Amino acid sequence: MSNYEIYLAIVIMAIVNYFTRVFPFLFFRKNDVPAYILFIEKYFPSVIMTILIFYTLKDINFSLQPYGFKEIGSIVFTAVLHLLFKNYLVSIFIGTIFYMGLVQYI
I want to staple 91 with a disulfide (CB 3.0 to 4.6 A). Which of 30, 55, 59, 82 is the partner? Predict the structure, then answer.
């Protein structure tokens, strides 16, 4: 790729990113938010957390050492964080950092 193509790709990605950020404000400016959007807003974070838990557990072999300790420990730690702070972002980020620490040192 030439420099021109790289710069063009960056500009196109910036424009697309900008419009994806602005679109909801333009679309919902005059109208009330639809019920399905409120439903997604309410339940989507917990659905994502559940998907992440199953994704984490899918490839664990519990018959081999360390018997899934890193994954189960990280899930419990993240659950405790969420119960304490009630913030999905804090739970996901600090839980991920904790898991990465366990993977590196255990």
Answer: 82
